[in-house]
Amino acid sequence: MGGWRGGSTGIPAAAPTVDVTGTWRGSVTQAGFGTSTQTLNAVGTGASVSGTYSSVNGTGSVNETVSANTLTFTISPTGCTGTITGIGAVVTNQAGITNVGATFSGAYVCNGTTYDGTGTGNLVKQ
After folding, report:
1. Domain edges within the chain
2. What are the distances in angstroms from CA 55 to CA 4, 37, 113, 125?
3. pLDDT tens sequence for the chain (126 residues)
């Protein structure tokens, strides 16, 4: 994570322009599971944030990096191997509602079954 973006290009990541800490809730659609409501609790300061998520499909941990209003993240489902990675844009509308629209992909194995972690989500800051 180290605050650098773009690998070896040496371009520093932009400072966060949004605060992603707190509770987020919304709709997530994942291949093989359909659409469900998911809750994310995020803590941290600056560009590095971590947290937990929960839904009817399971729980897990999330590690996030924030650059300007862009959020990149890695999800690790509890009790499984493999990760899901994604990216989203955090936006506050004229009514003051902050949401993140994200896309993600990856695969993970739980109890001997491989799951496709591809999907989209739209979470609203509570």
Report:
1. 15-125
2. 32, 6, 19, 16
3. 444 444 455 677 899 999 999 999 999 999 989 999 999 999 998 899 999 999 998 999 999 999 999 999 999 999 999 999 999 999 999 999 999 999 999 999 999 999 999 999 999 999
CA distance 52 to 112: 23
Distance CA 94, CA 46 (A): 24
Specify the fold of 15-125.
Answer: Lipocalin (2.40.128)
